[in-house]
Amino acid sequence: MMEPSAYLLLSGILFGIGAAGVVARKNALVILMSVEIMLNGVNVAFIAIGSSLGDVTGSVFAFMVMTVAAAEAAVGLSILIAIYRLKETIDITELSILKW
Amino acid sequence: MEHILFVIFGAIAVGGALMVVTRRHPMVSAIYLILTLFAVAALFVLRQAHFLAAIQVIVYAGAVVVLFIFVIMLINVPDKKLPVERATGLRFLGVIVAGLFIVETAVIARRAGEPASRGVDAGSVQAVGRALFGDYLLAFEVTSVLLLAGVIGAIALAKKKI
To answer: How many CB atoms are closer than 10 A to CB B62?
Structure first.
C-alpha cells in the first residue's frame, strides 16, 4: 500500500480548491458545492490515515462527516430557496440585510 | 499499480474540483461535482475503504448532488441574472491564501511518516459495522437525530407558510 503522504497532499489540494471557491465565488449554489468539495478533501485524509494505521476510526469519522455534509446540504439549499423566494437573487453580495 | 490509479483518479478529482469552482453556470458545476465525487470514491477503494466508497456514491452522488440539481432547476435562475464574478482584490487575496494552504499541506504531508501497520482490513463493511454499532453506537444514534433535525429544518425553511 502507498504511503499516506500523497493522499494527504491530494486532500489538501481538494480542500484548498474548495476554500478558494467559497471565498471567491458569488453564486451561493457554487459556494455550497465548494463546501462539499472541502468536506470530501477532509474525508480523503481520514481514509488515508485510517487505512495506513489499520484503524477503523478513520472510516467512522469519514462516515460522520458525510452525514453532516448531507444534513448541511439539505438545510443550506432550503435556506437558498427561501432567500430566492424573498429576494429573487442567489448573489451573496446582494444579500446584505444583516449588515449595518 | 496503486500509484498509477492514484495519479489518474487524483487528477480527475482535482480537475473536476477546479471545474466546479470556475464554471459560470451552477448546473455545469454540479455535473463536474459528480465527477469529483466518483473519483474520490475510487480513491477510497484504493485505500480498501469499500464501505465508504459505496456510501460516497450512494449518498453524495446519489442524494446530495441530485438535491443540488433539483434546487438549480427549481429556482431556475435565468442566465442574465446569474451573478457576475469580478476579480476584486479581496477575492484575489482569498485565492492566494487558499493556494498558500495547499503549499503548506504539501510541506506537512512530506513529513508524514511510514504507515505503522499494513494490510489490515480496516475499511470493510464488517469492520466499519462492528465499530459503528459497538464503540461508536452513541455517536451513530446521535447522527440519526442530526439527520432528523436536518429533514425538519429543510422542510420548515423551504415551506412557503408554516
So the answer is: 14
Taking contacts as CB-CB distances below 8 angstroms, the residues of chain A near B155 are 78
What are A48-91's pLDDT values in tens digits? Answer: 888 888 888 889 999 999 999 999 999 999 999 988 888 888 88
Element (H, E) at A19: helix A4-24
Place of cell 439539505: A74
Q: Global pTM?
A: 0.90
pLDDT band at residue A1 under the 50/70/90 scheme: low
Number of domains comprising chain A: 1
Q: Which of A3, A12, A34 sits opposite B101 (nearest CB)?
A: A12
Q: Which of B8, B9, B40 to mutate to test the interface with A (most CBs of A within 10 A)?
A: B40
Mutate to test the interface with A, among B9, B19, B51, B52 (most CBs of A within 10 A): B52
Rounded CA separation B151/B46 (Å): 33
Instruction: Assess B15–A contact: CB distance below 8 Å, yes or no.
Output: no
Residue A100 maps to a domain: no
Contact B40, B61 (CB under 8 A): no
The sign of the CA dihedral A5, A8, A12, A14 is positive
Q: Does the residue A19 lie in any domain?
A: yes
The yes-or-no verdict on residue B138 having pLDDT over 90 is yes
Residues of B in contact with A62 (CB under 8 A): 49, 52
The number of residues making up chain A comes to 100
